[in-house]
Amino acid sequence: MTHPLLDLPPLTAERFAAIERRVGSLLATAHDVVIAQGEALLPLEGCVRGGARPGSAALNVVTGPYGQTFGNWLRDCGADVVDLEVPFDTAVTAEQVERALAARPEIDFVSLVHAEAATGNTNPVAEIGEAVRAHGALFMLDAVASVAAEPLLPDVWGVDLCVIGAQKAMGGPAGVSAVSVSPRAWERLAANPRAPRRSYLSLLDWKERWIDTGRRALPHAPAQLEMLALEACLERIEAAGLDTVIARHTTAAAATRAGALALGGGLAPYVHNAAEAAPVATTLRTPAGVDASELVAKALAAGPGLPLIAGGGALAAGMVRVNHYGADATPEAVRDSLTALGTALASALGGSALGGSGAPVDVAGAVRAADSVWEARG
Ligand SMILES: *Cc1c(COP(=O)(O)O)cnc(C)c1O
């Protein structure tokens, strides 16, 4: 008996190359695209280990947990790392990056996360890219949480290595990912004697065995199901229009923020400045005395399947994340999330919604505020 997920004909080199081209159009890039056969941490690690050399200096911008991971990899590679860390409830500014670069002229690699799903902030990559280009360093961007949620223009912004994954705003699979590689980045990797070779982390192996040989034969068996899912999700984005998908995410974020502000009860946006809030996910601070993990558990008991999660690690006690991305970038998911959170919050504060003994929690007002954002943006 055949099964829809099994017994598939092999994924051809032509089809693989066609999926690569579609990723290139999604990123509006003229550079080579490598589709990594693993989750986005695979190309991210490949980029860091390919770009950093012992004795080189790297600027690692830390605006959330992924930046900390990159810093550790860079140090592993023997690079002298300058960590530019800003509070996770803000974005880094181009001026901060400029100053850090000016203080260390020898910096030749810069790593940055575009949007942080974990903390809910987004960084001004276009302006930062100008500073990095003026300095002449290689620029790596983690755009996993920004692709399809907000504009992403790696070539225009001077990004040399732009890594994406399909599992967030693209609404696709988690098991494959992609990186666009500028000609400058290929030169840097090729000139780095410590860049991974004969390794699953090696972008250079992939270039030599796939790109430079005319994309005629795949070096090894591709992650077939994930590639088909990636193709399907690219088709779906193309059919809807990338701008429409992005608009759904920016509106979901604005609606969630407006709803949370109207909700009251001490639940407040974690990222103070709305302009620095990521369209992919909205993070909220819980009021003193309300544990975020318990609040989320209570909300999920009432609304199973809602895109709610407590912050990771040290943020688990005080942060709630509304992951309104992919299939959840909708008015319904936002409304239901606000309702479940508001109801759980009212009970945690020891009152009922509006008029209880605790701080007033206005669930109906929150839903109205969120809906009016969707209506205003058509
Ligand atoms: C989601 C995400 C990734 C992918 O990592 P996972 O931990 O596997 O989800 C990488 N970078 C950023 C900024 C992300 O938001």
TrEMBL record:
Keywords for this protein: Aminotransferase, Pyridoxal phosphate, Transferase
Modification N6-(pyridoxal phosphate)lysine occurs at: 168
Residue ranges constituting the Aminotransferase class V domain according to the UniProt record: 75-312
A GO molecular-function descriptor: alanine-glyoxylate transaminase activity
GO biological process, one term: glycine biosynthetic process, by transamination of glyoxylate
Gene3D superfamilies according to UniProt: Aspartate Aminotransferase, domain 1, Type I PLP-dependent aspartate aminotransferase-like (Major domain)
Domain of life: Bacteria
Statement: the UniProt record of this protein carries the keyword Cell division: no
Cofactor entry: pyridoxal 5'-phosphate
Residues that coordinate or bind substrate: 321
UniProt record similarity statement: Belongs to the class-V pyridoxal-phosphate-dependent aminotransferase family.
Annotated protein name in UniProt: Alanine--glyoxylate aminotransferase family protein
Protein's organism: Streptomyces paludis
